[in-house]
Structure of Signal recognition particle:
Amino acid sequence: MVLQDLGRRINAAVNDLTRSPNLDEKAFDGMVKEISNALVEADVNIKLVAGLRSSIKKTVNFKELAPGVNKKRLIQKAVFDELVKLVDPHATPFNPKKGKSNVIMFVGLQGSGKTTTCTKLARWYSARGFKACLVCADTFRA
């Protein structure tokens, strides 16, 4: 499954729910199930998917919602927040030290934009007082 297909399926599930005329618990459960299925088919760990599913259901509790609450926005926000939590690495970002060698390695398929990204990153660090050097180490370049 391509990553774009995963995003498309998640968007479609949320959009189908928010467009439905009667926003009830049955439609909500169907949306959560569709998102879960899309994640499992994209090889996301089943424990993470189960945790995401329970967190979304806990956040959007139809029995405790006030009558004036915009259910559609609440559901969209809950899904977005839980997906962000799913991909958050909980790690501190790379913090290079001036005066030392800091190595950043980019790996990817041909034509995916590595050279462009590396050049932009080198320029960004140069503007902040770092000395930047790019080394092209392609195994094959036409």
